[in-house]
Amino acid sequence: MLRISGGLLLAALLAAGYALFLSGRDARSSLDAVSALADGLRDEQTVGATLDRATAEAMASAMETLVAAPETIADHVEELRAIAQTAAAWAAAAPTAGPELHAAVCLRTAAGHLRAYALGPSPQHLLHAERKLADARLSLGGGGVGSRGSGGLATDGLRDRLGDLEQAAREQRQELDEALAR
Description:
Layout lengths: L1 H39 L12 H16 L8 H17 L5 H21 L3 H18 L13 H28 L1
């Protein structure tokens, strides 16, 4: 009797191990599919450029200065547009699920929030810009991707690529709003 129950237990353990092995392979193929999808999500209108950390740090500092003195933001819309364009180029060339992509998307989004503040002052725009600048600084400093402390997962890359495309659409709307406000 003991041999039979021991054999059944061994068979159950082997079956459970095989099921775990198969689910691990399925999870890996799912992650590979997410990575491939994220790589394909790039702003088609942007030519890529390699991220320059010193320039990115200078951009973050300049935007932090604007956050500290919001009454001056309206005088710097062109500079914010240039920052967003540079960050878009960095995002286009950055590897998916890396700190460079996350930093570039955060800088681009922060510039967008500051431009939005110039059109319609709201403390929310300043708070969002501040958060994005903190995330960019964390990524530029090698502290991982984002304030969530994640280490560059495929899902983080997908989130960043989607955020970059969303910001590109926001920028197009901002261009129209700015033209109407002139």
